[in-house]
Structures are given as C-alpha cells and as structure tokens.
Amino acid sequence: MTGKALLPELWTEILVPVCAVVGIAFSLFQWYIVSGVKLTADRGASSESEDGKNGNEDYLIEEEEGVNDESVVAKCAEIQTAISEGATSFLFTEYKYVGVFMVLFAAIIFLFLGSVQGFSTKSQPCTYDKTRTCKPALATAVFSTISFVLGAVTSVLSGFLGMKIATYANARTTLEARRGVGKAFIVAFRSGAVMGFLLAANGLLVLYITINLFKIYYGDDWEGLFESITGYGLGGSSMALFGRVGGGIYTKAADVGADLVGKVERNIPEDDPRNPAVIADNVGDNVGDIAGMGSDLFGSYAESSCAALVVASISSFGINHDFTAMLFPLLISSVGILVCLITTLYATDISEIKAVKENEPALKNQLIISTVIMTAGIALVSWIGLPSSFSIFNFGTQKVVKNWELFLCVAVGLWAGLIIGFVTEYYTSNAYSPVQDVADSCRTGAATNVIFGLALGYKSVIIPIFAIAVSIFVSFSFAAMYGVAVAALGMLSTIATGLAIDAYGPISDNAGGIAEMAGMSHRIRERTDALDAAGNTTAAIGKGFAIGSAALVSLALFGAFVSRAGVQTVDVLTPKVVIGLLVGAMLPYWFSAMTMKSVGSAALKMVEEVRRQFNTIPGLMEGTAKPDYATCVKISTDASIKEMIPPGCLVMLTPLIVGFFFGVETLSGVLAGSLVSGVQIAISASNTGGAWDNAKKYIEAGASEHARSLGPKGSEPHKAAVIGDTIGDPLKDTSGPSLNILIKLMAVESLVFAPFFATHGGFLFRIFS
Fold first, then answer.
1. pLDDT tens digits, 165-198
2. What angle (nearest 5°) sits at the alpha carbon of residue 488, between those of residues 487 and 490?
3. In what helix (H) or strand (E) does residue 29 lie, and over which residues does it extend?
4. How far apart are CA 79 and CA 504, in angstroms?
5. Is the Cβ–Cβ distance between 151 and 302 less than 8 Å?
6. Domain count of the chain?
7. Is residue 3 in some structural domain?
C-alpha cells in the first residue's frame, strides 16, 4: 500500500549528521570573527576587514571627544569579567541543585517504568500489535533513563554555552559601538548566531546519535525504541524549567531593585555604576534571558521531535521500517539549519545597517527570509523524504495521508509562528499605537498605565490563539496527531535564526550597561539603547514563538499519551475528566503566583540592601566611593536557588500524583486544562510586560513630539512608566516564559510514565470502586 521515500536510507544517515556538523562549524566561525574585536587598547582592532562596511568609516568618538581610549577599554574589560564571573558562579550553583534532582528523577523513571512488568527481562507482546513481540518493559526503563540524562545534559550545556558566548560578546559590542551602530549590531547579531546554531545543531546531533545507538539493541522493535527516546524531551524540558524559573527570579529581583531605588527614588540613570544592584542586573540578563531561554527552546525542539517520532513508529513508517520517512522530523531540522545559515549571511555580509532606525527591520527581515526559504526547504524534504502515500496512526486506526498533505502541516506551523511573531511585535514595539497608548496613559499616573497595560496583554492573545487554532485544525485534519507534531516542528524549524535574534537582545542590553558603567559618551549610549530597544521587541517575538510552539508540542504529546495509555476517548462529561480539567486550568495560576511572589520577596530584599548602601556608604551618590556589588549578587543568587524549587516540584510532581492516585482519564483532563489556560496567561503576561518596558523606553528616547511631551527622564509620566515596567518585569521574564515549559513538561512527563499509569494508575478510584 505504501512505497518508499525517494531519498535512500544511506543518504539520510549522512545528511542529518552533516547538517548538524555544518551548523556547529558555522557557529564556531562566527565566534572566531567576534573574537577579532580585541578587549585591549589596540587602536582600531576590529573583526571586519571591509572598510566602509556597516559604519566602519566612522572616527572613534572617544578620539573626537578626547577621552582616554586605553582606560575606556580596560574599564569595559573589567566590567565584562565581573558580569561573566557572576553568571558562571550562579549557573554552577544552580546546576549543583539541578544535578541532584536529575539523579533522583532518573531513579524514579527507572523504578516506575521497570515495575510495569515487575522488572521482568522476558520479551512481551507489542502494545499496538499483539501478534509481534517487543523488548521487555525493563529495557524501556533503562533506555528512557539514559535518554532522560542525555536530554538533561544537552539542555544544561545549551544554556551554559549561550551564557558564555553572551558574556564574551557584550563588551565587544560596546567597543564596536564607537565605530558606528552597524558595527555594534553585527557583533551582537553574530554572537547570537553562535548560540542559535550551536544549540540547534547540538540538539539534532545528540538525538540522531542516540537513535542510532539505541537501534543496536532494539533492532526491529521501533515501537520500543522511540518510546524510550521520549525521555530525551523530558530531560531537556525539566532542566529548562529550573533554568527559566531560577534565572527569571535572579534577573528580575535585581532589575526591580535597581530600578525602584535608582530611577524612582535617587533619579540616577539606568545602569549607573553608583547603583549597587547594577552588576546583578546585568548578570541576570545572561542567566535568565540567555541560559534560561536556550534551555527552553532546546526543550521545545526535543519534545516536538520526540512526539513526532513516537507517533511515526506506530504508523506505516515504523511498521514498514522506512528509516528515511521515520527521520522526517530530523530532516526538517537539518534543512532548517542550512536555511538559517543562508539567512544569517544575509544579515552579516549582504545587507548593511547605516542608521539607528534600521536595526529592527533588519531583525524582522531575518524572520521573513528564513520563513520563505524554509517553505521551499520543507517542500523539498516532503517530496524526497516521504513516500507519496502512507498511513498515520490515528487513535487506534490508520489514516491514509499523502506527502503533500504533510508538507502543508509543517508549512502551516511555520507560517503560524511568523504570524504570532508579528502580532507580538505589533503589541510590544513602541513604533505602533498600542504601546504609544500605554505610554500616553502615564500622564495620569501609574494606575492608568497598569490598567492600559493589562488590557493590551489580554487583547494581544486573540490573534495568536486563532493562529494556533487554525494550525491545529489544518494539521490534525490532514495527518492526525502526527500532523500537529510536525506543525510544531515547522514553527521551530528556523530555531537557529529565532535564537540568534533572541540572544541579540540581552547582549545589546548588557552592552548599554557596560557603556554607562565605563563612562562612555552619551552618543555611544544612544546607539546601544537603539540596539537594546530593537532587542526588546525581538525578545518578545521569541517568547511568542516559544509559547505558540509549546501549545502545539503539548497537544501532540497529549495525543501520544492518550494513545499509549489506552484511553479510547477523553469525555468531558465524565466527572473524572471534569475534575482534571478544572485542576489543570488552575495550575498555571498557582505556578504564576509562586514565581511572582518569589520575584517580589527577592526584590524586597534587594530594595532594602540598595537603600542601605545609599544611606550608609559616604560618597556613593557623589561617585567617590564604590558600592558593594557582591552583596546584591548574593541576594539574587540565594533567592533564586531557594525559590526555584517549589514551582519546579509543582510541575514535576503533578502528573505523577494525578496519574498514580486518580488514573489516566483524570490526568488527560489535567493536561487539557493546563494547556488551555496556560497558553492564554503566558501570551498576555509576556506581552503586557514587554509593552510596559517599551512604553518606558519610548518616553526615555524622546524620539517623537508625543514622546518628548511625556519626558524627560525623571518626569512624573516617566516615573509612572518605570513603575509599570517593574510590575511587568516578573510577568514577561519569569512567569510568562516559564508557563510554556509547564504545559510541555507535564505532557511529556505523562507520556514517559504512560506505561506505568496504564498498569498501576487510578489507585484511589480502585480502592473506592
């Protein structure tokens, strides 16, 4: 009934790892170019050789204004070292705690899955085809545990490498800003590309190698092989949760403390070196926005691949052992790396940025170009990597699907991601009316600013939800749950470009902070502020992508879980499911409450410490004495490590408790409820926070007549905008981005433990029935 894919198996075996290696090589090449910007007083040392390209003909502003060049470079290097050391020490502390969790949870996976068949080593009938024999449940337990550890280690590594690259690039971006805004943009963007390509290629390569190594043991039992691979997604997302929550609490405690005392009470500029919390704030950008986000998007990528592979293994691809078609998700990611490579070269070597206002369009063009080229790439992969007709598992039956239908599934996910990205930009960029309206509301104080900001966030949910709904309907109609899984992969196929754009933001933010602390001229600060404002919007776009893909990924995982656990239908009229739905819909609120309160209590300590230093250190306000940065760094570190554990436990333990005590039907209700409410809260929280941040920047920049009427810095409307920004900080950088991990993580965890829940679940209902 089904043919073979045009692409021979041998070519697939070569193509996937080659694309991954090309991605890693490209990221190292970009890093080598960035390293050409020297942090020594070597005049005019620069990465770019082409004179006149991207503002290279500018004279050094320092030379014009007679500032000592050597002392500026030395100061930048010193600040960069402080930020890098702070970020490294925090991540090592966090990873110690996370490492203990990893070992404990690996043991739980082994014990729970091993107990399904009483730790028997005998072969068993396959779950979906009882006529065939499959490897014992004990093998699934062992290999799921191994893939969990591999996913966790890759996730941690992704976050750590991203942080190292960002802290390496921040001062270099500052120094290049002396030569023109185009030069600074290129350094920040190249550095973001290093992280994007390393992460995409590493995730792909580790998954590919894992599949091939597991195949040696599993042989023809592809059902068992790909079931055990799901542990990879669970490992990736569980580390991302702690990275996002811990990093988010760290960065926002420092940010809120620095802003409230520095800007509102003491009327000093952002990133002023007199502010004791300023180093902690800049460290936070790297551990939250870079390391946390890197782990998060790696988790999404790993889970969407795992969800697609699990469904494919029980479809005609797996039954007929068509390895090329089986690896269709990995082929999409491989082509994605090549497409992003072309797109990145366009930004760094073909187009040229000459003016400040060209930053944001250049970043948006990256998204558009990568999406257009990727559409053609998906068409090619669907044509050569899939049989013309095949069957897909659809809740107990096999649905016949054509290869062009699967192309449409991936393409609809890809374009839905772009729509979500642009809607997010519309609601969070200060170039458009929604944010300008929020800024205008600051005339009458902080209260109206908060009301307008909340309304904007709620309204910004509408179009992304329709985009997600349409992509779910289209992809499910064509190819059941496999269609939804590859739609999520489509959204994430340009992950290297998405991450490059996302990482660019915190690097530019840090660059501005370093310029302020090093006492560089206001013209340089204006340039880094322009880079940062563009980065703020693109960071919001990145969060939109992450949330949209999380919705599709968790739905695909939910479908795989329902199939694996043997649930025929999820009937919302049965009390078991209804109670699950209600509890599931409540979980994002409980989780958000925990993370918001954690930021609030940590910020409280930070505010008190910053006030204490301003009041007790003589000469601090005059700039003759140095603040005690280390104490503020310690407050953020201690608070985030302590406070990340309860929200993490809530997410990780809920599926285990519900599945064991109440059974798979109630758990399926919990997953559906958390997906529906979590997506809405995540989008509104991220966009509200982003809008408040950019409303404040709109007033500070004073680029239009309207903005100047609200300013300058220190005016009453500006103070109201700063208060809005500080309220939005935990929403956009802690609760919002962490919620997408909550919905994915509970779904992938339920899938991994599905055999255990199907055998031993519903303990309470069994007692009372």
1. 999 999 999 999 888 888 899 999 999 999 999 9
2. 60
3. helix 9-34
4. 19
5. yes
6. 1
7. no
